[in-house]
Specification:
heterodimer; A: mainly alpha; 2 strands; 62% helix; disordered C terminus; B: alpha/beta; Elongation Factor Tu (Ef-tu), domain 3; Rossmann fold; Ubiquitin-like (UB roll); 6-stranded antiparallel sheet; 6-stranded parallel sheet; disordered N terminus
């Protein structure tokens, strides 16, 4: 069966694939002390921000200290989840053979249990990126993010659900692997769901105890300041992570795919799908670090196991390869990319038809 | 009898108790307290043993002797045991086993390791060239059943070969510190006498203690020493006529070990021979018809033709990064579930076709097609 993507020429795709393999092999051969030193440095900065932030919140009765504490703790959680946790759990640093940086042992400062994340994200999302009905990151089971998803009056409140998902993002991510709607429809085994739920409960309980019980109680009479500060830091992290992550696959120009693309898909076609299904964000070095280098979403999807701090360099080569082979490369500033995401959330609240492009491509 | 560990650098006495409490475990969730401590000082840890290099000496051209000051988590060792030492080389953590050579009664609680640098030894060469005072290394607790028993045997024969000198050196130094009255013979094999670390000290011990005899045997041309030539029954009968009465402790290269073992077995003395194998025989050449097949790494969905090397090496060649430590079948870090197929253990030669069994992939070679949960 022919591959149902619009064909810029099969040979051109294979050539692009060979270029991507060459980039991967070159970076893999070059991994070493520089990468180990980088991730250790980021972890040290994160630990410092966390201890500093939590310390400042103990003085939270003094408003500037509370604000600085929230800022530091928010930055700590963002670094922990994005540049550190997400990337270590992809196995980007497994070659270091250091248990502290091992994808199988690492856990992060958020409600989602690491083992479930590795299943729903590393395996499902990264293998079946943007394939409708398989990649659960399209709408997270609660939003309508593609024209192909059948409209229902529930989606009239699409913008509200999106807003709530942003506010409670860490819990949305935590519940991701539970696949609630599949359990309700009887498509997922209840016993399986119960096991997943138990994992979520254990992890969420630990997180709640730390942020909302243990640290506030330690502050004695200042408990309310610490409680409110931790709440604010978690909220800031939720909103930021949501914004960056939704810019990865939902801005205008990003393609979604029917299940049929998966049949007989070659390695090069997989690279091509990752390229078409992802979008980058432009910005400075600090912006890239604070977004866990998910601002290089294209490079991350092409090479999920390469240390993310390398993506900026790799991006130049990927872009050049795209130009060479006449392939699109979707990138833009945060405000513009997120603007188109918001527009999509609103547009899809109302009934729409499956888009011609996709339908035509699927039938081609 | 583990020696009490001397206090060393690290969080002070009441502090570890507080930091180890359930409250701190809750505050540091989910990373754990250690992950915060090490960000400030690589030596600080509630559970892991780490050590600072306190001195670096080069006793022979191809070796380095390190004195390590372990943190407070170190539980001490018994003479003959080994530790796993971890260092980072170009960003990759490498672990190797070394036996402390010092007396367990050293008052300062330090550990002395003598590392012989082989031309092919990545870690040993790195240590010889780059070990500096102040560097921090990772350690395991002391391990291994090769050790001096309690109570100490009366007549002791210690046989070391090459870098296998270190555990028997620890035994000798410990016995001397304990004022051991029985006769001790220290028999050491090397290519050349000048290659022997501790040569001067051995001479000094023998001079001070009449019950101690040190005999250097060399196997290379013009090696020097008190005797020449490889180990044989005739040689041991000449050098140590009463060897049958001794409790014998042996550590050396595979050839020496096999030669000594066969003489002891011949004489029916096997129960009195204690030994430590610290080098693997090179994997036996692939026999026709038994290698072949393929390796299936189920979790990473990869396949590779079986080339007869260890599962760990083949997995690495296939682009996987399995966790591992010692690479010689000791630490079990690389333990992995084999779901099907037959493997041969490189240490024992035993073959196992048991489905769903945990194996150490660094010392297992696949016989035909094997599936791993990796």
């Amino acid at each position: 069966m022919p591959h149902p993507l619009p064909h810029p020429g099969a040979e051109r795709i294979e050539a692009f694939g060979r270029d991507m393999d060459a980039i991967r092999d070159r970076v893999l051969a070059d991994l070493g002390e520089r990468d180990a030193r980088y991730i250790r440095r980021i972890v040290r900065i994160q630990r410092g921000l966390e201890l500093g932030g939590r310390g400042l919140l103990f003085l939270g009765f003094f408003p500037p200290a509370w604000l600085a504490g929230v800022a530091a703790l928010s930055a700590s959680k963002i670094l922990d989840n994005m540049e550190i946790g997400h990337n270590i759990m992809h196995g980007q640093y497994d070659w270091m053979n250091d248990p502290a940086y091992s994808s199988r042992r690492f856990d992060w400062d958020t409600a989602c249990p690491s083992d479930q994340w590795r299943h729903s994200h590393n395996y499902l999302h990264h293998t079946y990126t943007n394939v409708q009905g398989v990649d659960r990151d399209i709408g997270y089971g609660v939003l309508r993010m593609s024209d192909e998803k059948r409209w229902h009056p529930y989606f009239l409140l699409n913008p509200l659900w999106a807003f709530l998902l942003a506010v409670f993002f860490q819990y949305g991510v935590a519940l991701h692997d539970l696949e609630v709607e599949r359990v309700l429809k009887g498509k997922k085994d209840k016993k399986d769901a119960l096991r997943v739920l138990k994992g979520i409960w254990t992890k969420t309980r630990g997180q709640t105890l730390k942020d909302y019980v243990a640290f506030p109680l330690l502050a004695g009479p200042f408990a309310p300041f610490v409680f409110a500060g931790n709440l604010a830091a978690n909220l800031a992290r939720n909103l930021w992570a949501y914004t960056i992550i939704f810019c990865g696959h939902f801005p205008d120009g990003v393609r979604q795919f029917p299940k049929s693309v998966l049949e007989n898909e070659t390695r090069a076609q997989w690279y091509h799908r990752q390229l078409l299904g992802s979008a980058n964000l432009t910005g400075g070095p600090l912006f890239h670090i604070m977004s866990g280098n998910l601002s290089h979403q294209i490079e991350h999807h092409l090479f999920p196991n390469l240390p993310a701090h390398r993506y900026a360099d790799i991006a130049q080569e990927v872009r050049a390869a795209c130009r060479r082979h006449g392939l699109p490369y979707n990138t833009g500033p945060l405000w513009r990319q997120f603007g188109t995401v918001v527009r999509r959330i609103f547009r899809l609240a109302l009934p729409t038809r499956p888009q011609a492009a996709l339908g035509a491509a699927a039938g081609a | 009898m583990p020696t009490p560990s001397a206090p060393a650098t690290g969080p002070r006495q009441p502090l570890p108790r507080i930091l180890g409490s359930r409250l701190f475990a809750a505050l540091a969730f989910p990373h754990g307290v250690d992950r915060y401590l090490e960000a400030f000082n690589p030596l600080w840890s509630l559970h892991e043993v780490r050590a600072t290099i306190a001195a670096v000496r080069h006793e022979t051209a191809d070796s380095v002797t390190l004195t390590l000051r372990p943190n407070r988590n170190w539980n001490g060792f018994e003479p003959g045991q080994f530790v796993q030492l971890s260092i980072e080389i170009n960003g990759v953590r490498r672990t190797r086993c070394y036996s402390p050579a010092n007396s367990v009664h050293a008052a300062d609680g330090r550990i002395e390791l003598t590392v012989k640098a082989h031309s092919w030894g990545l870690v040993s060469r790195h240590l010889r060239e780059h070990a500096r005072v102040g560097m921090v290394v990772g350690l395991s607790q002391a391990q291994g059943s090769f050790r001096l028993p309690q109570p100490r045997p009366e007549r002791v024969l210690l046989i070391g070969g090459g870098s296998g000198i270190t555990p028997v050196m620890s035994m000798l130094r410990t016995l001397v510190d304990e004022g051991h009255r029985g006769a001790i013979t220290f028999l050491h094999y090397a290519r050349h006498a000048r290659d022997v670390a501790y040569r001067a000290e051995l001479a000094a011990i023998a001079a001070r203690h009449p019950q101690v005899r040190a005999i250097h045997v060399t196997t290379g041309p013009d090696g020097g020493g008190e005797a020449q030539g490889r180990f044989s029954r005739a040689q041991i009968e000449k050098l140590v006529p009463d060897y049958a009465e001794a409790e014998t402790f042996l550590c050396g290269p595979p050839g020496l070990m096999a030669a000594v073992e066969s003489v002891w077995v011949e004489r029916g003395l096997a129960p009195r021979l204690h030994l430590e194998r610290f080098t693997l025989d090179t994997p036996p050449a692939t026999q026709a018809g038994v290698a072949g097949g393929e390796l299936r790494f189920a979790r990473s969905e990869r396949c590779a033709p079986n080339d007869g090397r260890s599962l760990l090496e083949q997995a690495e060649s296939a682009g996987l990064h399995p966790q591992h430590g010692c690479r010689m079948g000791i630490c079990s870090t690389c333990t992995c579930r084999k779901t099907s197929g037959t493997v041969r253990n490189l240490l024992t030669g035993a073959e196992s076709a048991e489905p769903d069994e945990d194996i150490r992939i660094c010392v297992s070679v696949p016989v035909g097609t094997v599936t791993l949960d990796l």
